[in-house]
Amino acid sequence: MNAYVEKLKKDLSYKESFDVTFREIETSYHNYTLVFLNFLIKSEGVIHIIYSLDNYTSTLGIDQIAKVLLNESITIEKNYELIYDAILYGNVAIFVDDDPRAIIAEVRNYPSRGIEEPDGEKVVRGSRDGFTENIAINIGLLRRRIKSGNLKIINYTIGKISKTNIALVYIEDYVNSKYLNEIKKRLEDVKVDELTMSDKALEELLIKNAYTPYPLVKYTERPDTFASHLYQGMFGIIVDTSPSAILGPVSIFDHMQHAEEFRQTLISGSYLRFIRFIGIILSFLAVPLWFTFLQYENFHFTYFGKIFEVENNHLAIFIQLLIMELGIEFIRMASIHTPDALSTSMGIIAGIIIGEMAIDIGIISEQIVLLGAISAIGSYITPSYELSLANKIVKLVIILMVFCFGIYGLVLSLTFLLLYLSLLKSFGKPYLYPFIPFYFKALLNQLFRKPYKNKRIDKS
After folding, report:
1. Is residue 41 part of a domain?
2. Is residue 311 located within the same domain as residue 411?
3. From CA 112, how far away is CA 132, in angstroms rounded?
4. In 198-236, which positions are buried (b, 16+ CB within 10 angstroms) versus exposed (e)?
5. Nearest in space to 420 (alpha carbons), one of 206, 212, 210
6. Between 366-381 and 385-405, two packed helices, what is the crossing angle to 10 degrees?
7. How many Å apart are CA 213 and CA 391, to the nearest integer?
8. What pLDDT is attached to residue 350?
9. 40-69 pLDDT per residue, tens
């Protein structure tokens, strides 16, 4: 009996786990043992292998047997740990008689869903495919868009127990070598038992400043967006079991871009980007600015109508603002966990009926509901979900500072925010680049979409 086969039965919990299969085949010349996991393999692939073993191997040795097997990828492995890992990844290990070596045949067939368009990154024009939880499909979608040998895909295995496949992706001669060397070093330094939460867990392990609310990497589920950023000099990380891919290094401006801007004409795309910037700024500044101006009659602008006609009870308004912000978050979180067929109706009921009732019984004023709605719309305009959450946290802090210190709190909090963001770095890249450090041409390209024919790589 093959010693490796006996060890594998113990390590794979054979007969305790019903998906573990040890298929024994006896012929006139050899005794074969095939080891695989039922639900991670293509059945037809195993059938072809069995057919080959039964008809073509005869008196051949293991090296010759490997050459005649009907399979797309065959290797011979003698290291037990590598054989063990190969089986867990969905391959079949073939043992011949008492030979300690194993033939590893590629028969993987991971369960996966369709490549439909991501809900959070929809476009009016453009491709409708999106990443899935299958790393092989994701790499295939990327290869369709970058048909070049300069596209490098480096495999890492992270997690002592989970053994999660990670793919570091970049285009040679486009990516900055400084950032590339930094991410390679950080990936090699990751030592964990499991990576169950996949990409998000990996992000926390890679980012040194784990407690910042602002996202230091960008997520996307669109292969066209991913490929476009690789051409801009970024590196990407694809994590098996996650439909979201990681991009870095990034600046805050990268989180404000959306694929829709590049699917329209130059003027229309720039218009969309400009409107989006305004919406993002309003999402976290509209309410604090109103709260500040409300305390100073000199700042009451009559052309805003009745926006400042509110009983100036400082503490009451502060409480109303907190209720409004928390209420919007409650509605957002509830809609996420509500089935699609009901989420729209629930949002309408919560937003309109509850809001109207809150105004009628005097819990919240009309002006605060209006500003809350503007702020919420601005946060939904933000392409990056992580950036919108960070802005909401910052908005609450600014409101608290304004409540405590008035206009001085507003100025102090905004100054501190600017200073804080200027010190942040994403894998060594300044977070506010090209605003800080200032680079006029690059900043202009961030604010307005430039003609596609003039796109040039910026490795800064």
Report:
1. yes
2. yes
3. 7
4. bbbbbbebbbeeeeeebbbbbbbbbbbbbbbbbebbbbb
5. 212
6. 150
7. 8
8. 66
9. 888 899 998 988 888 877 788 888 988 888
Report pLDDT for 101: 93
**CA-based max dimension of the chain:** 99
Question: Which element (helix H / strand E) includes 161?
Answer: none
For residue 117, what is the DSSP state? P
434 cis-preceded (ω within 30 degrees of 0) = yes
pLDDT at 153: 95
Cα distances (angstroms) measured from residue 220 to each of 117, 165, 223: 11, 18, 8
In a domain, 361, yes or no: yes
The tokens describing 356, both together, are: 């109207």
Nearest alpha-carbon partner for 52 in 34, 38, 76: 34
Q: Are 305 and 379 in the same domain?
A: yes
Q: How far apart are CA 218 and CA 234, in angstroms?
A: 10
Instruction: Give residue 168's domain range.
Output: 119-250
Which of 105, 134, 149 represents a domain boundary (last residue)? 105
Q: How many C-beta neighbours within 10 Å does residue 91 have?
A: 27
For residue 266, what are its two tokens? 């130059």
Strands 164-171 and 235-239 turn out to be antiparallel
SS3 154: strand
The pLDDT score that the predictor gives to residue 171 is 94
Do residues 30 and 85 both lie within one domain?
yes
**Which H or E element spans position 372?**
helix 366-381
- Between CA 435 and CA 441 the distance in angstroms is 10
Residue 293 and residue 240 in one domain? no
Nearest Cα residue to 90 out of 2, 21, 192? 21
Q: Which CA distances in Å does 336 have to 330, 341, 352? A: 10, 12, 18
What pLDDT is attached to residue 235? 96
Stretches in the chain below the pLDDT threshold 70: 1, 299, 301-305, 337-351, 452-460
Collapsing DSSP states into helix, strand and coil, what is residue 149?
Answer: coil
**290 and 405 co-located in one domain:** yes
Provide the domain count of the chain: 3
According to DSSP, the β-strands at 102-105 and 74-77 are antiparallel
CA distances from 244 to 121, 200, 239, 318 (A): 11, 9, 8, 38
End-to-end CA distance of the chain: 60
Q: Are residues 308 and 408 in the same domain?
A: yes
pLDDT digits (tens, 9 = 90+) for 364-414: 888 888 888 888 888 888 889 899 999 999 999 999 999 999 999 999 999
Same domain, 94 and 125: no
271 and 243 within one domain: no
Residue 454 belongs to some domain of the structure: no
